[in-house]
Amino acid sequence: MLNVEVNGARIPAVGLGTWDLRGNSCARLVEQAIRLGYRHIDTAQVYENEREVGEGVRASHVKRDDIFVTTKVWTTHFAPRDLERSAKESLVRLRMSEVDLLLLHWPNPHVPLEETLGALARVKQMGVARHIGVSNFTVALLRQAVAACPEPLICNQVEYHPYLDQSKLLEAYARSGLALVAYSPIAKGTIRGDEVLGRIGAAHHKTAAQICLRWLVQQNVVVIPRTSKVERLSQNIEIFDFALSDAEMAEIHGLAKKDGRLTNFGFAPKWD
What we know:
This protein has 10 helices and 10 strands. By secondary structure, the chain is an alpha/beta fold. The chain has a domain at about 10-190 and about 220-225: TIM Barrel (Alpha-Beta Barrel). An 8-stranded parallel sheet has the order 3-4-5-6-7-8-9-10, covered by helices on one side. Strands 1-2 form a two-stranded antiparallel sheet. It is globular.
């Protein structure tokens, strides 16, 4: 498995997103993913499945140190003492001594960013998280976060797929040395039936989803596709035996739309 290396972290390039996975099926899917070769599992407090994710990791019998586990602090826990408490509660639910990556799930303008980042840095210093980062931050917020955080951030997790232009963020990452982690990398399945992706996929004997994931990985982007189907797990990591040409990469970039964003809540920041 390819890794993306940034600020001392080695993030497996393909992970399993677990949003909306629940109960025993979540634990079984995590276990199966790890047995198939996944070494990166992504969860969050608000997903309400940290306990099951932890069960799946233990059931795989793969050494904990070999698995990169990410969780995210929800916005209602951004006050410093609350952030520390909630991060420790995540470890209790996961039954882990630390997570590999702890993220702020969304920006929260009601708590000063410097205070939240100070608490996030302390959580890292306390050994609760090996690395820290943010999610759903704009270029401006990312710049503020990097400047204000006493500890190095390693990534921003955002929506990114062929229908959403994230070139401004990618340029910001190149300047700041952070990684981009893409959620909804196959556009929540809406890429099925796409003529361009289908044609390119046929040329490589790959599915449209595999073409999406390969397109992202070739940009040095980490991807965390979410699936509830075991058969899709193996497909989503079978993207390292081919490469897209520059022309194919450019053609896929051309699929971006003005209304391409699929995740946009009322509390979201003003996007770039």
